[in-house]
Structure formats: C-alpha cells, structure tokens
Amino acid sequence: MNLEKQLGNLLGFEDDTRVEIVQVGEPGELPTLEVRLLRNAGELGWLTQRRIRLAPGQIGMLKDALNVMDPDARDARIPARPTAGDSNVVELATLSHS
Fold first, then answer.
1. 64, HSE (Cβ side, Cα atoms, 13 Å)
2. CA 56 to CA 34: how far, in whole Å?
3. Where are the alpha helices (DSSP H) in the chain?
4. What's the Cα-to-Cα distance from 74 to each of 10, 15, 33, 86, 91, rounded to whole Å?
5. Is the dihedral of CA 79, 34, 31, 9 positive or negative?
6. For residue 12, what pLDDT is reported?
7. What whole-number distance in Å separates Cα of residue 9 and Cα of residue 36?
8. How many other C-beta atoms are found inside a 10 Å radius of the C-beta of residue 23?
9. CA 52 to CA 50: how far, in whole Å?
10. DSSP state for residue 76 in the 8-state scheme
11. Contact 48/37 with Cβ under 8 angstroms?
12. Strand-pair partners of 35
C-alpha cells in the first residue's frame, strides 16, 4: 500500500497544466518526493502526464539547486489564471492511501 501526502499544487507553465508535489512511500520505509505534471482533459478531469520520483537523498540536493537559482526568477509571482471550477490556491497537505 503506497502512502501519499499532498504537499502542494501549483499552476503549470501552460494554461491546461498543473504540477503536484507529493510525498510518497511504503509503510515502514523512508518516504520520498514525487513531482507530477497533470493536464486538464476536460470531462475526464486532471490526468497525470508525467511523474518524477526522487530518491530520499536527492531532496536536499533539489533544495540546494533551487537556492542557487536566480532570485528574481525563484521569487517571481505567477499571475493568477482562473479556470472554470478550479482553484488557483496551493492546497494544504492531505494524506491518502492507494
């Protein structure tokens, strides 16, 4: 049974995409981070297009890489792009079993 904890839900680069940041792991094992690209498929809802799963030791390396990024780009605000029936707010963490 895979445990998932939703850490964030971000607007995607394209209007019909979003990025989910999810903590994933098996019970009793060290969890890791998964970055998911989702695309709005209309009546089918949001479908996962790609998943990138990091090894537990890579999370700190990712954090370090983000801190090296140009501060203007890293700290820039994304203008809100409202979509029908969807919120542009980062969601609170949730826990689910799959």
1. 5
2. 10
3. 58-68, 71-74
4. 14, 20, 20, 25, 20
5. positive
6. 87
7. 9
8. 16
9. 7
10. P
11. yes
12. 21, 52
The CA distance from 15 to 25, in Å, is 30
pTM: 0.71
Cβ pair 10, 90 in contact under 8 A: yes
pLDDT of residue 74: 78
Token pair of 85 as six digits = 């029936």
Give the H/E segment covering residue 53.
strand 46-53
Please report, in tens digits, the pLDDT of each residue of the chain (98 residues total): 789 999 999 988 888 999 999 999 999 989 999 999 999 999 999 999 999 999 988 989 999 998 898 888 878 887 666 554 555 444 455 555 55
- Whether residue 36 contacts residue 29, with contact meaning beta carbons closer than 8 Å, is answered with no
